[in-house]
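I can't quite decide. Please look over this sequence plus structure tokens:

:::
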Amino acid sequence: MDIYNLVSFTGIFGLLAIAWLISRFIFKNTQKINWHLLKWALGLQFIFALFIFVVPAGVTVFQEINDLAVMVLGTASAGAQFVFGPLALTPGVQGSIGFILAFQAFPTIIFFSALVAVLYYYRILPFIIGLFARLFTRVMRISGAEALCAASNIFVGIESAFTIKPYIDKMTRSELCTILTAGMATVASNVLAFYVFTLQTQFPSIAGHLISASFLSAPAALVMSKIIFPETSTPQTLGSVVDIHYEQESSLFEAIINGATSGLKVIFSIVALLIAVMGLVALVDLILGSTGNMVNQWIGSSMEWSLKQFLGYVFYPFTLIIGIPPVDAGIISQIIGERIILTEVISYQDLATALTQKSLVHPRSAVVAAYALCGFAHLASLAIFVGGITALAPKRTADIAGVAIKALIAATFACLLTACVAGTFYTNTSLLLGN
């Protein structure tokens, strides 16, 4: 243990305090903090992190999960190599022509979407999700619907809304904020595989860390959502365990087809977002750069003017709060900050670049940053979740849109809270970069 473990630990309470101040003085919420939820949500995070980082048996389980994920990821490339040939071979493999995002990383999304569909068909995932939903409902005393949605988001993305489709119309506004927050504070398993692929070479144990981040982020989303938007009404399913709602395919082959098709849709969405968002950011940077050059000449400065740089300044204090050493805070703050605009896809790629170029001095910087980035907390995802949920409950469109920004803020703080918990238990002897 060192000083940065203490920084991350105190950062937990710092983030909670900042979230409360935003709720109280910006959103004008006067309700008291739900201390029972806060206590149990943090407790669950601490128990899980303690098991993963400190307990010897937990470290062994962590390594086994990481190795299993990497092994499964290796099988995911078999289909891509058959279809695309040398284009699908990763760097370092004989015959590879270098890293190509579209042919090496994106196919993993199709494979894992099909795998998740198979696990759904055999009711394996519904069973696991149900266990977590019961735990959240009974321990944290929240509504069964939002507990089920939060549990679903550990494993799937926007599809989690379908598990509570019958209840959305009658949800309170606080519950609606929670399901949006849970969606943006976590990542889907099929996209998580893509992040593993992106960072695996530079960060061999990344799979285990991202899987553990998915479990840590669910209770973090619940607590931050209820601080930013406290419950003022009585939810219909408060304290009740609700059954998962989903339509099972008629055959295994149909499940595979639907899963693969769903993965293809995700790829198209990512490609469209990357092309559009990165183009718009480049345009903004062009305008900022031109304006900045004139200002720099006027004041005699050489300051860089870009959106990434600006967001780096905004998130710099939060980077220090979560326990990133100051020597690495400048780089990590830009990586975390850019996610709000460029999505976590670009942020994880930039983290991989920083590791490749050995730009980070402390190993903990990459680990804590990986946890902070493990969520869909960005504007593009906000649009996707709002659009997807309003399609299921069109009568609640105004309410869902009204809590959207609050949910994005809560999701961002939830990801940072997860990073603080991981940073609290991280030590130089923990399973980290696998070196």
